[in-house]
Amino acid sequence: MAKRLYVGGLPYATRDSDLKETFSEIGEVASATVIMDRATGRSKGFGFVEYVNDADADKAIDAFDGKDLGGRTINVNEARPMEDRPKRDFNRGGGFSRGGQSW
Predict the structure, then answer these.
(1) Domain span including residue 9
(2) Is there a contact between 43 and 13 (Cβ–Cβ < 8 Å)?
(3) pLDDT at 47 over 60
(4) What is the C-alpha to C-alpha distance for residues 26 and 63, in angstroms, rounded to an integer?
(5) 55-74 pLDDT, tens per residue?
(6) How many domains does the chain fold into?
(7) Domain assignment of residue 96, yes or no
(8) CATH code at 39?
(9) For residue range 19-38, what is the model confidence (pLDDT) as tens digits?
(10) According to the model, what pLDDT value does residue 16 have?
(11) Which candidate, 72, 14, 70, 76, places its Cα nearest to that of 51?
């Protein structure tokens, strides 16, 4: 399985193609994705890069972690698996309360 890298601190103008082009300097990139906010369509400032070869992924961490990209210092490390998050409860109850009075 290919090694997946987390890339944080990206300039907000960075797109998938920019990320892939930059990280392709090290080796063959299987995928590069900048995470976008669904509501605004704007970058969240981080993304993921997956290399075909694990050795290239290790080289990319050494080459890019703490380096400047577009005026921002980026963080690059091996991505951790996504953790389960608790379900959000949008029903907080008491939806009919008006100024302390219940209807």
Answers:
(1) 4-74
(2) yes
(3) yes
(4) 8
(5) 999 999 999 999 999 999 99
(6) 1
(7) no
(8) 3.30.70.330
(9) 999 999 999 999 999 999 99
(10) 97
(11) 76
